[in-house]
Design a protein that fits this description.
The protein has 139 residues and is mainly alpha-helical. Helices cover 54% and strands 6% of the residues. The protein is built from 5 helices and 4 strands; from the N terminus they run E-E-E-E-H-H-H-H-H. The strands form 2 sheets. The chain has a two-stranded antiparallel sheet. The radius of gyration is 23 Å and the shape is elongated.
Length: 139
Amino acid sequence: MEPNLSDIEDIAAEPSVPVKRSAGRPRSERPLEVRTGIRMTQELHDAVVAAARRDGITVGAWIRHRLAAQCDIGAEAGRRNQPPLPSPPREETVAIAAAVRELASVNAAIALSDARAAKAGLERSRALLIPILMKHSRR
């Protein structure tokens, strides 16, 4: 279930609490300046946690990003910095690591002037990397 901002029951009774400001820094390096508490159903909270995990970011970053987009103020206004890229699936990580090892063997073959071994290592690296790259180009 994709969380809907209209499902938030109410904003906490406490007023927003200003946090330490950092004048003089570029906006992208400033710490977040206001803290606001919100109340929501457990079902919504679980959905927000799941959505944040899918995106590879924290719950707070996910909520800030969604609120900024909803208010048409741009994602940069709602986040401290870029969210981390999600980790690739384990099988892709294993394949990429194997390709890097193959490239090390290519380097060794070049150092030994063994063109046949270097070419074979490059072909093995290609065979490992191309399926991953083709899968990502379809996303």
